[in-house]
Design brief:
two-stranded antiparallel sheet; 1% strand; single chain; mainly alpha; disordered C terminus
């Protein structure tokens, strides 16, 4: 039996698959570095148009240096984030005041009547022991135990650790993004220079298609965030909910997190509405919750029926089951950020493999090698 000999095309696809597996293993093992790199590539794609515009401006007959243009883009982003943060400041300030004025005894008094009704119901069916005031007493003991177990030192240590991680990640992303913008396509040219001439045309076509799909996807996400913000802000304002713009902004940003984001936005809106509302009767309380839930229901129906199909079907071009599996794989690797960036990363690999496969069928270089 003659030995099996791989053709050049078969060897090429074996190398391609092995490179793909190696990249996945590297990305999983060095998940933090991979996440910084992917985040930087996305930020570089978003900031490149603004940086190029600033770079083209003439001052005293000279172009603005590209480094200065990048710093100006950073300043614009920081200013924008700061202005958005100002929307949350009044809400945070009010919540701090409410917590500082919190009176547990008054809360116990407000809960006494509903807890007595629940207690009588449970005693009637012998679900708890026949002892009046047991539920309120258990509530008091639970709150006291929770306060006693609260570790202030551990909380401060955890807060410092999280703050340090965020600071390091932000600096790493800013540093990598700066040099990606400063090179202005140099990284892509260097990667293309490593590709043999036989596969150069196919590689350029793959790079171009990947860039186009990712640009469409990012632009679609921007439109999705803007649309959700406008819909939620308009609906909550008409419903008379306080801090409507703040709730709408949080919901629009949280919606970037697949599946869990809409729930977070809705819960945040309900908590803010309840904690800042002025209720004279229980019906007012229930009616406010109904209005908030109705607004977010309309927003999510619009998002699921109109916005998401428009974004994912035209940019990612993947089956919903694929997206579901990839999102949860991203969550396993890098948590919430992994869920957010799972689709762009998957798009890169998916398009690359499909383009190389179509090139195997269409490009002359493969047909020539197959006949040799």
């Amino acid at each position: 039996m003659p030995p099996f000999i791989f053709t050049s095309m078969q060897r090429f696809f074996i190398y391609l698959i092995l490179s793909f597996i190696t990249f996945l293993v590297f990305g999983w093992y060095f998940s933090a570095i991979s996440l910084y790199l992917v985040t930087s590539l996305i930020f570089a794609a978003l900031l490149r148009p603004l940086t190029n515009r600033i770079n083209e401006v003439h001052v005293l007959g000279q172009h603005v240096p590209r480094g200065i243009a990048i710093l100006a883009s950073y300043a614009a982003v920081v200013s924008f984030v700061f202005l958005l943060g100002l929307l949350f400041f009044p809400l945070i300030n009010r919540q701090v005041i409410l917590l500082s004025d919190l009176d547990l005894e008054s809360i116990y008094l407000q809960l006494e009547v509903p807890l007595e009704k629940l207690e009588r119901f449970l005693m009637k069916y012998q679900l708890i022991e026949n002892k009046r005031g047991i539920l309120l007493e258990e509530l008091r003991l639970s709150v006291q135990e929770a306060l006693q177990k609260f570790d202030i030192g551990g909380f401060i240590t955890g807060a410092i650790s999280v703050t340090s991680s965020i600071f390091i990640g932000t600096m790493a992303v800013a540093f990598i993004t700066f040099f990606l913008l400063l090179e202005n396509g140099l990284l892509r040219r260097n990667l293309l220079n490593l590709i043999p001439n036989a596969y150069f045309e196919l590689s350029v076509a793959t790079f171009t298609k990947v860039e186009k799909l990712l640009s469409n996807y990012l632009f679609g996400l921007l439109l999705q965030v803007l649309a959700i913000f406008l819909l939620a802000a308009s609906g909550l304002s008409l419903a008379g909910v306080e801090y409507a713009l703040t709730i709408a902004l949080f919901a629009a940003i949280a919606n970037l997190i697949p599946y869990a984001g809409p729930i977070l936005g809705t819960v945040f809106g309900m908590v803010v509405g309840v904690s800042t509302g002025d209720f004279s009767t229980d019906s007012d309380y229930s009616f406010l919750l109904f209005k908030i839930l109705s607004v977010f229901a309309v927003v999510q129906i619009t998002d699921n029926v109109l916005l998401q199909p428009l974004i994912f079907s035209k940019s990612v071009k993947a089956h919903p089951l694929e997206i579901f599996v990839i999102i949860f794989a991203g969550a396993k690797i890098a948590g919430i950020l992994g869920m957010i960036f799972a689709i762009p990363v998957y798009t890169i690999f998916r398009v690359s493999i499909l383009e190389f496969y179509s090139g195997y069928k269409a490009y002359k270089i493969f047909k020539i090698k197959a006949t040799n």
